[in-house]
Design brief:
Elements (H helix, E strand, L loop, with lengths): L1 E5 L5 H4 L1 E4 L9 E10 L2 H7 L14 E2 L3 E9 L10 E5 L7 E5 L4 E2 L6 H4 L2 H14 L6 E4 L5 H12 L3 E6 L15 E4 L6 H8 L5 E6 L5 H7 L1 E9 L12 H5 L4 E4 L13 H15 L5 E5 L4 H10 L5 E5 L3
Length: about 325
Amino acid sequence: MKALVQDEIGKPLDVLRLREIEVPTPGPGEVLVRMTTASINPGDFLFVEALYPEPKKPALPGQIAGNHGAGVVERVGAGVTIKPGTEVGFSYFDTWSEFAVVPEEWLIPLPRGMNPELGAQLVNLITAWDLLERSRAKPGDFLALTAGHSTVSILTAQYAASRGIKVISVVRRKTPDIDLLSYGSEHVIETSSPIGIRDAVLEITSGKGLNGVIDHVGGPLFPELVRSSALGSRIVVNGVLSSAPYELHHFDILMNLIEIVNYVYRYFFEPPTTDDRVYLQQLLAVSTILDLRVPVAGFFSLENFREAIEGTLDRPEEGKRFFSMRP
């Protein structure tokens, strides 16, 4: 089988190699998945560079890259209940390959015929849903989403719009590739605009401020969002796209009763529990009913991995890129 493999730690384009290796055999409790689609995410690059904590570290040499994807159950090991032919999505290891062995507990059965661009990135569907829940935004509230062009923010905007929440997407600059107003946002604020964030927010909200924020950026933008928030708002921190430091006075938080909480993907370290299965099926059902959409920049073969990764790194605003292993 073909797979993208690394033997050392480094930047993806420096250390990943396309190789022909043997198809693995599932052991007890394991499943062999014939991969159909795998998403390319910033987190996949962090894994290749060994920037995640244990146990999310590459096992060298010979680590297959990729942490998220979808496929069809090909074979099962002893003690497995899931049936061959079942379409599944998962977040684990080895997804940038034609086959992957995955412990059954990590697999999430997909609705038959689910769009590959959604099934291959359940991490983003689940994250978007959880972030919205954690924000506690209510119908009629103004909710700001930073990194507005990111897949997570675009999915969050659609979930929020379905609940009557007014979404304000915050981006560096608008792009002709993605019209955020067609993905659930009611307003778009550009940080490159001469109009400050706070002034733009107050104009949109008629002076009321933000009821909630989901921030994937950090940096100097964060205190601007805090100072643009209404009394009693909640800010959910989920990313650090900016490594720049910032200054924030406790007074801005204390006297405005602002609550700041964090979120880490719920299945980052542990697989779904038995109790989670009902939640996951409900989420997938709602996502199917809403007919969620994500901007797609393209599907790439494993052979064209350099083009796919370069595009993800250099032009993420064009949309999500995927590896397709379909024949």
